[in-house]
Amino acid sequence: MADDPTGNAPDLTDLDDDALLAELARVLERVSAPPPEVVEAAKGLFTWRTVDAELAELTHDSLIAQRELGVRAAGQPRILTFEAGGMTVEVEVDDVPGARRLIGQLTPPGRADLELRSADDTVVGSIVGSADELGRFVLDLPAGKQRSSLRIRRGAEVTETAWVPL
After folding, report:
1. Cis ω on the peptide bond leading into residue 35 (within 30° of 0)?
2. On the CB side of 138, how many CA atoms lie within 13 Å of its CA?
3. What pLDDT was estimated at residue 66?
4. Mapping DSSP to helix (H, G, I), strand (E, B) and coil, where does residue 145 land?
5. Could you give all domains of the chain from N- to C-terminal order, each with its CATH number?
6. Residue 65 confidence (pLDDT) above 90
7. Global pTM?
8. How many C-beta atoms lie closer than 10 Å to residue 110's C-beta?
9. What are phi and psi of 23, to 5 degrees?
10. pLDDT at residue 116 tops 60
11. Are 81 and 89 in contact (CB under 8 A)?
């Protein structure tokens, strides 16, 4: 269906579904891709999806503490502590041959839904799990290092840890 030479839009009221879809495809073929700055702005808006989560700041990282003290502790698990409001999240990152695990404890204790997210979704994407009534949890990690954040949901309350390389 060609456009009306007078500049008026074509009458689409008499088209069946297939003809309407074909006309829509022709219109979309004429539309160019969005400008790169629009794509970047849209990606920036995507980060606002977690604006309701309270951010748990990293208050202790055994890897940094060991460097500051000049101590080398090869083979030791890495211990991370995050704090937000009245919640503390303690995490141990265990690297053993053939496996990596995140073992943690929530304080105050209680059940929670967990989601470990990767900054690069191609590496981890999202790993889900849960904390038991004592606040304990274990998440299996894929091989390799990635920048991650742990999202903790207890009912309507959502807490998210700062992003750290794991």
Report:
1. no
2. 5
3. 65
4. coil
5. 17-48 (no CATH), 53-165 (2.60.40)
6. no
7. 0.63
8. 14
9. -65, -40
10. yes
11. yes
